[in-house]
Design goal:
The chain has about 170 residues and is of the alpha+beta class. It has one domain: FAS1 domain, CATH 2.30.180. About 40% of the residues lie in helices and about 20% in strands. The longest helix is centred in the first third of the chain and has 15 residues. The protein is globular. The two termini are about 20 Å apart.
Length: about 170
């Protein structure tokens, strides 16, 4: 549980980063994405560094998915914050931690193969997760993944991208 929260925190903190260069100093043809420094940490380490994903990081560790998410990728992770995990019914996280197969299914339902940045996400209506089921994407008012609101997009990592969400995604049964 702490690991999941750590991952969520890392993803949130990484998402908060920005350029300190004033926009007036940017050449007209350069976008802020072009000026962003290259990421130096993988998805897991980025999540840990953020500090708002301790439950997510703990769950990733409990499910044995750390090496996978530290792998080459690329991956797109829709990362729920610690607050998102806190919204689950009492006992849900503990039950998942006690059932590694169910935990892995929930966690891999938050991962889409490839690097899908915000500009691509908004043109999609669904995506197939590593878990195998599709997630619904609605960009009509902000971006929602199923019932989760994306609260920070494009947290870049060396092996993919993290989009921070406010609700844990549960795969269809």
């Amino acid at each position: 549980m702490r690991t999941l929260a750590s991952l969520a925190l890392v993803l949130s903190l990484a998402a908060c980063g920005g350029s300190s260069t004033p926009a007036a100093q940017e050449p007209a043809s350069t976008t802020s994405a072009d000026e962003a420094p290259a990421p130096t940490a993988d998805i897991v380490d980025t999540a840990v560094a953020a500090g708002s994903f301790t439950t997510l990081v703990a769950a990733v560790q409990a499910a044995g998915l750390v090496d996978t998410l530290k792998g080459e990728g690329p991956f797109t992770v829709f990362a729920p914050t610690d607050e998102a995990f806190a919204k689950l019914p009492a006992g849900t996280v503990e039950a998942l931690l006690a059932d590694p197969a169910a935990l892995a299914a929930v966690l891999t339902y938050h991962v889409v193969p490839g690097k899908v940045t915000a500009d691509a996400v908004v043109s999609l209506t669904s995506a197939t997760t590593v878990q195998g089921a599709d997630i619904a994407i609605d960009a009509s008012s902000g971006v929602k993944i199923n019932d989760a609101q994306v609260i920070q997009a494009d947290v870049m990592a060396t092996n993919g991208v993290i989009h921070v969400i406010d609700t844990v995604l549960l795969p269809p049964q």
